[in-house]
Design brief:
Blueprint lengths: L11 H6 L26 E7 L3 E7 L4 E5 H6 L14 H7 L31 E3 H6 L1 H14 L1 E5 L7 H7 L13 E3 L15 E4 L11 E8 L3 E2 L2 E5 H11 L1 H9 L2 E6 L4 E6 L2 E3 L5 E4 L13 H18 L5 E4 L6 E5 L3 E5 L2 E2 L5 E7 L1 H12 L7
Parallel strand pairs: 4-5
Antiparallel strand pairs: 1-2, 2-3, 5-16, 6-19, 7-17, 8-16, 8-19, 9-18, 10-15, 10-17, 11-12, 13-14
The structure holds zinc ion (ZN).
Zinc ion (ZN) binds next to loops.
Amino acid sequence: MDVAVDVGTWPAVWLRDNCPCPQCRVPGSGQKLFQITDLPEDLVVSGVEESAATVTVIFGPDGHRSTFERAWLADHGLPGDDAAGVNGSAESAGVTGATGTVGVPGAADFRTEDGKRLWAGPDAPLPIGDWERYQADRGHRAETLGAVLTGGFALLRGVPAEPGLVATVAGTFGYVRETNYGRVFDVRVEATPANLASTGLALSPHTDNPYRDPVPTVQLLHCHASAARGGDTLLVDGFAAAAALRAEDPESFAVLTSIPVPFGYRDRDSELRAHQPLIELSADGRIRGIRFNNRSLQALRRTPRQVAAFYRAYRRWAARLAEPELALSLRLAAGDCLIFDNTRVLHGRTAFTGTGQRLLQGCYADLDGLASTLAILEDTDKERV
Ligand SMILES: [Zn+2]
């Protein structure tokens, strides 16, 4: 393979920091064996030797040789200096909300809007997996998990309504995040509910546990029994809604992304608190997380002017998230297990009757484990240590 690469497009220090030689990295894992301060400050490329498959860079002043695969270099091109914010001053990158990695394959943070397929209500993809097939077929498993990363959710059907099985589902792609609610929790009507979830009342779309730090990034809900009437599940793509807010009401968007708000939860055994904005941005200014839960929002302690601006924006945001056309409505049946991104997709339900009937079991897990499992499923050839 003769891929044309121009070594001059990478700064010398970048090439050296990415040197794959066994002096610089542990073979296999690729863990670096040096500190940035171990490298000469006046590094230059003093020579280049090319072969069909590789490019060897010789560095001055120390004469170190780094041999790169051409294909690797071709895959790791840098955006041009004219791309907004990139390689510019940190100040301009921060202030302008740069989108410097957009369009550079593999460069974007998959957790941000740049790694997602956004949807609204009826346009939502409805990825449906089958539990039997999911367990037997790597491709089907990859497809289902990929849907959670890009679309924000997947529905697995045919998961037997057995106690605790929802944790087994989580274990197929990661690790259960045990909390003060336990490893697995029930969502059912209770006689003396501590939480609105344990009633038959409607729940407006929300994210779970914004009062945790870090917040659980994946939620699973496994239906054991559905209500006779009502209790339909609603899903809203919070990233799509936030992107629309940014386009139509940038002032509210700026307030919601810049004012951290306190979330809290307390009961006899727990006192949980976290401060985060309702819409979280990456350092590049891209939408990266949604926290929305009216039940656990605590008293905001900012200047009166900031408080007024926050409530104006919060009201608009809440009204937008409640718009029926944004919601995908699903009727979960016994055996259905919903897996969704709790940093992006809001979930809610319609009111229901039939006390004691409807039962969901839930648990939390995390996106990093899910993404790792997906990467392994999709790449069986990569050398592993
Ligand atoms: Zn080296």
